[in-house]
Amino acid sequence: MADKQATVDGRTGIVIGIPTSDGVARRDIIIDPTSGLVIGEQDILLKDYPGSG
User: Is 50 domain-assigned?
Assistant: First the structure.
């Protein structure tokens, strides 16, 4: 699990990253530290997918 900061539409939040079971990707959820509301999410590829390029 990753724990860092990210900015979404000018708002900075805390990122909680959850890797997939195969370790190929990570799902990040970005939370406003003041309100606790989700302000964004993103999927991050951690490894190359065969045939993706």
Answer: no
